[in-house]
Amino acid sequence: MRTPWQTFVQPTVEEILRTSQVPGMVIALTREDGPVEHLVLGIDGFAGPLRAETLFPVASITKLATALAILGCCTFESWWQSWSAIGAALLRRY
Questions:
Q1: How far apart (Å, rounded) are the C-alpha atoms in residues 69 and 60?
Q2: Who's near 39: CB < 8 A, 6+ residues apart?
């Protein structure tokens, strides 16, 4: 199921994939009391298709723990607006 945020974000993600050495990306988004929605683009490191359920290796568990701690200390909206132009534009538009 495609929702407006996916349609809005997809061109930017496609440009990142074209101009970087990142073969694929999975973005998950949830809203209060809503289901998790995914945007899945590209392939994995072995040229296989990515899926919403794809597991990614973590190079440093400290990065994950730090990110989770930061997200727990502020609302998603305030974090997203502070750190992502995509998120700020998305929140203004929708």
A1: 15
A2: 5, 6, 9, 10, 13, 25, 26, 27, 29
Across the chain, which has 94 residues, the per-10-residue mean pLDDT values are: 80 91 88 87 91 81 68 60 55 54
71 and 47 both lie in a single domain: no
Tokens of 44: 């994995």
Judgement on whether residues 53 and 69 belong to the same structural domain of the protein: no
CB 41 within 8 A of CB 52: no
Q: Which helix (H) or strand (E) holds 73?
A: helix 61-73
Same domain, 37 and 73: no
Q: What is the pTM of this model?
A: 0.58
Kindly state whether residues 66 and 53 are assigned to the same domain.
Answer: no
